[in-house]
Design goal:
Length: 152
């Protein structure tokens, strides 16, 4: 894995994050959405950067209840995938959620994105429901859930 640092997202990251989003995700998100996320649940906005400040990936989340957060956007730039960066981002997201008393993390993923579904399942998420016509293009999604702590 390249030398990376997982840190709080900052305003100057947004341009690079927007480029990763445009290249990696199949939905359009206006660049302003990241500023909105940053003012919502600030600790849930993380970036993976290299030693020179290049953003390699990011994760954003919102708090939906006192004990639940939702991952809203999550991507690693294609040229940096399969190096553990996504796992590091998700792990830090979990730690920050747990530190705020959050027990549940939810997300939606396109039902045809088998790579992402497998990634999440290997990291403790499980499928809870299918969502018809979830995406703007009419595509279906799967809702997935994980817990910050293990109750067993």
């Amino acid at each position: 894995m390249p030398d990376i640092m997982i840190r709080q997202m900052i305003i100057s990251d947004i341009g690079q994050i927007n480029e990763i989003t445009r290249r990696s995700l199949d939905e359009y998100f206006p660049q302003e959405i990241f500023g909105i996320f940053m003012t919502g649940w600030q600790v849930g906005q993380l970036t993976a950067v290299d030693y020179s400040g290049i953003v390699m990936g990011f994760i954003t989340g919102i708090r939906v209840s006192p004990d639940k957060v939702k991952i809203t956007l999550f991507a690693v730039d294609k040229k940096y995938r399969y190096r553990g960066i996504g796992t590091e981002l998700l792990n830090e997201f979990r730690i920050r959620a747990l530190s705020e008393g959050i027990r549940t993390i939810i997300l939606e993923v396109r039902n045809t994105n088998v790579g992402a579904i497998s990634f999440y399942e290997k990291r403790g998420f499980f499928r809870t429901e299918s969502l018809k016509n979830f995406y703007n293009d009419g595509g279906d999604a799967i809702r997935m859930v994980s817990f910050t702590i293990n109750n067993s």
